[in-house]
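Translate sequence into structure tokens.
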Amino acid sequence: MIAESMLPEFDQEFATVRKFLEAVPEDKLDYKPHAKSMEMGRLAGHLAEIVNWIDTTVNTDVLDFATFDYQPCVMTDRAETLKQFDEWVAEGRKILAGASDAKLMEPWTMRTGEEVYFTLPKVAVIRSFVMNHMIHHRAQLGMYLRIVDVAPPSAYGPTAEEMPS
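Result follows.
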């Protein structure tokens, strides 16, 4: 029941992510607006990979950065990233759809060794660490696109380009 209620949002939000990834200009993958910012290719790759965290959340109980072998996704080829993203979205949706209410209410912890960042029910982790985190980075990518003079796609309504003057 919980997962079922989340699937329409999952479908809508990740379809919107795909539109943002489609808009990334391959000749601007090295662009970053600030020295401490991610390059656009890294940000786009990160946005594409976030859906994988549904698997991590549902099928594990702890993410320990001290032992986690993380290989960041970086967009170097838009078509290849979109292909991989579509596969990850299909897998993430399947995992979410198959998660029982009991499973989604189990605790999940993020930590680095002994330092615990949070412990929350898995459903709350999907909402915050996956969905909200993805929306945050999607908004960042929208700003990158705007700065490099690419109109960001619509997320929740008309963009500035789509509004009457």
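Note: The longest strand covers residues 115-121.
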